[in-house]
């Protein structure tokens, strides 16, 4: 008994020490970062090697491209990109980003990429006063914490869910919809938003939920078959939406399959198979420079191909734009986190590749456009803005 | 809940549950046999199944199918895949025993040590596939090893016949029939052959078996080989049905298969069959009433209730009782 007590006391002491040292480190960050050096460190945080890295790596590439271009001009103050692999996991994002603000003393961060990890790790950035811009965390709740250093440059799921729903109602003349999602933060948010919009517009909604990581969706498929919906909306990621689409089509369900940005990439089409994915409606608050793009987006796509040897994918343009915001801040002579944050709040709107970027006081971006993509012959194809496409 | 809905969903749910339950059952055999002989839960068995799916995928990539097969070509291809996957998974299971369990057994380590060794082997195998095998052997350096690896379509999804409103498709029928055949063969082997008698003797009383001239090491190796081979078959059927696999595929399935083994009575071959198919059915039937997200909850509630009344599972525990 006494041994146990000693152990417990030691454990309490140890954790206490850790917390204290973490606080101490966090407190000094603001003033020391970038102190007079001619390089400003910007971090990139997200799932770089995990299951959903397919929708994060393109954004990292975008940031890398923008920063390499800037540094190649030999500016007086260079920008250095440091990568932080969070595996998309809140429990990894917290320690990794604690290190970023205390040891590496980054002056700004692009990311975290997902909503769950953002919710867990953003308080660390807030406390350390490090400005952060997420290129892809779309959960609406993130904007409600009163964070001063948090920004995102895409519309949130309260915009995206209803936008896809409206698009589907307008183009498919639907009377009944079946909404499916798994139990993750993002999935529930976007599926609820879409279901609400369907119901508000008089479309009859049935629902089912799946378990993250499941492989057999036969019970969900059976429910869909029994309900005979005109269209199906799925909230979640490609790891489940791909196999689900395949199993629906294999059972003879022909209703339009639609999903949000968690499924808008090649991983979804590969997992579903080209024939099952054909014609699926995939939305994103992001602009992917693919297909029949012209002008500036084509120019950006060509740059991507030249540097990375493949077609640009989801959140690439947003990664590029987020990096550009930081670069512009540095160009204007702001090298400390505090000053960069002030710049983000007061700077003139940036005419970015993805959109015109101007932040609201709560960190949300003003432009909330949602874009529609589809799967055509095994490849992702661009259809247009959700309010314009026919 | 409208009664018509239940009627409309019951038939199709049953077919889906039977097909997926058959895969549970095949994997459950490996847990049950090893437990019967060694009183050890081989937690790395789920990775033996994962290796089976990749063995099948490797052969399919080599063959480079241009279109789904049917008739004799399909049967031949399935036999080829099953033989290869049985060999690879069986071999991997024997190797696993050699490396992760035998040294511990030699030194008389506790069962807890073997359990930790099993978990370690499981993590090792998963990471081996995620970091090396999938990127290099399956040529996916760009996507990395953690994204799902899609496979080709081996068989068309034609509806063969219908029972009421439930359509039975070719692929589902193949899964159910192939799983049943394999289980009958294994049951015969264990209950009728000489080596099967060795397995049963070792399960019953290892010391007496040694006195009767049974080589324990040989029997243990054989047990892992047979259990691994069954997981290999499960891997082929899984890949044929779902056409996609990943380094993590064994995790969820392994837990369910282990549950099936306990439900039917761990250590008991027929128990594994019964437990697997029951679990598949219960999950799907439960989903009709409560929604698919409750599948796992329902399955485990049934398990707890069964164990309350029959602590050793539905058919009882030991391998030798499989005769009764």
Describe this structure in a few short sentences.
The complex is a heterodimer of chains A (390) and B (324). Chain A is an alpha/beta fold and 390 residues long.
Q: What is the radius of gyration of chain B?
A: 20 Å
User: Which CATH architecture of the largest domain in chain A?
Assistant: 3-Layer(aba) Sandwich
Helix coverage percent of residues of chain A?
Answer: 40-55%
C-alpha termini separation of chain B: 42 Å
Rg result of chain A: 22 Å
What count of domains describes the coordinates of chain B?
Answer: 1
Characterize the overall form of chain B.
Answer: globular
CATH architecture of chain B: Orthogonal Bundle
Number of strands of chain B: 4
In what order do the strands lie side by side in the largest sheet of chain B? 1-4
* Main sheet strand line-up of chain A: 7-6-8-9-10-13-14
Q: Specify the CATH class of chain B.
A: Mainly Alpha
CATH class placement of the largest domain in chain A:
Alpha Beta
Largest sheet of chain B: 2 strands, antiparallel
Q: What low-confidence regions of chain B span 5 or more consecutive residues with pLDDT below 50?
A: none
Largest sheet of chain A: 7 strands, mixed
